[in-house]
Amino acid sequence: MQPCELSLAEAAEAIRTRRLSPVELTDSVLRRLELTEPRLNAYAAVTAERARADARTAAREIAAGRRRGPLHGIPMGLKDLIDVAGVPTSAGSRVRTGHRARADSTVAARLAAAGAVLLGKTHTHEFAYGLTTPQTRNAVDPGRIAGGSSGGSAVAVAAGSATFAVGTDTGGSIRVPAALNGVVGLKPTHGLVPRHGVTSLSWSLDHVGPITRTVRDAGLVLDALAGHDPRDPASIAAPLAADRRPPAGTGLAGLRIGVPRTYYFDRVDADVEAAVRRAIDGLRGLGARLVGVDIPMARHIQAVQWSLMVPEATAYHERTLRTVPELYQDDVRVLLEAGALMPAGDYLRAQRARTLMRREWSRLLRGVHLVAAPAVPTTAVRAGQECVTWSDGTTEAVSDAYVRLSSPANITGFPALTVPVGRDASGLPVGMQLLGRPLGEEVLLRVGHAYEQAREADRPAHAA
After folding, report:
1. Residue 173 a catalytic site member
2. Cβ(86)–Cβ(153) under 8 Å?
């Protein structure tokens, strides 16, 4: 195994025990990046010399006994919405041509303080307004979409051109590409990770979180990111880091896991449903109790998501939409222009509906510790495909299909984790989504880690 293929936790342990240096790890990841970028295009910008210099600094600090923690010397990518001082934040748009950040975002500053090594900025759909990341190709099948809008981050992690990455999630933009590329994606509780210095799509729906190779890795990155920042009005205090870490054991006795009877298995590809149901049965085998649940206000979810996101996005872009509309891509400009036509009453009704939805989801989650469901209704579609046709003959736009199962966690602000649970008949990854109570990341990480460990234990020794 090459160093670039190690999980964050494995790499951190190898660095801690001096079996691997940050320089060796970073060089390995950069070599993989050079090999994969022509085919996958995960990065908007690569800061290779900075990464090598930071890796050398990390190596000297660790050799001198000043190791800062598990992220020290670990190479990572940041979605190209996240400001790093002196580095462009293009947000995937010509609107940002020539832009360079003047200061670090909270996320970048915290990762730098933890000693992480920045490899570069990963591609996003323009201003995160989409579920495909058209610049980037799927890590498993380059003829298919990467998912979005954190597609570059997910592909970099899956391809080995980053040991971990950070993305944003407004309607599924961490979980969708993570599921489609076979990696782990965590959307934390709204406000747990500060968004200061992160370009907004929709301020009441935006989240920042990690994309990693394992659930344990996601917890390690969350430890570095979480915590109150008064510059983000939605920021909340974080539980102690130790309370979010998965336990050493794999048992789930005493946990009640909700299995949706409605919504989450409607209009879902048969291979996706089969893989997720097998994974849920695996959780029962680990001691969890499965409880059937009905998803509240299901028929309102899509309308509420779009009625919140569209006008908030338009408000953010009001000035540039008026002055340089020709610099936006057509698909994004149309959505922004549509937001200007939406009545204020529709937005206010969506906010009222969101309040009711949060209340009903809280009630549901008083009876179970979390809900387990598909992360996406279908695996990665072919690049350029605009619609999905379901077995009942109905068609659905690709973006609507992917956002449909992920948006409830954005509307409520509750945490959600996606974990790889298998592949479809074409060999494309399938993700299972775990949705939990506010600040319930520890439970999600515990369950995801238990599933991951059990699956690893069941895999034949010769399996790849």
Report:
1. yes
2. no
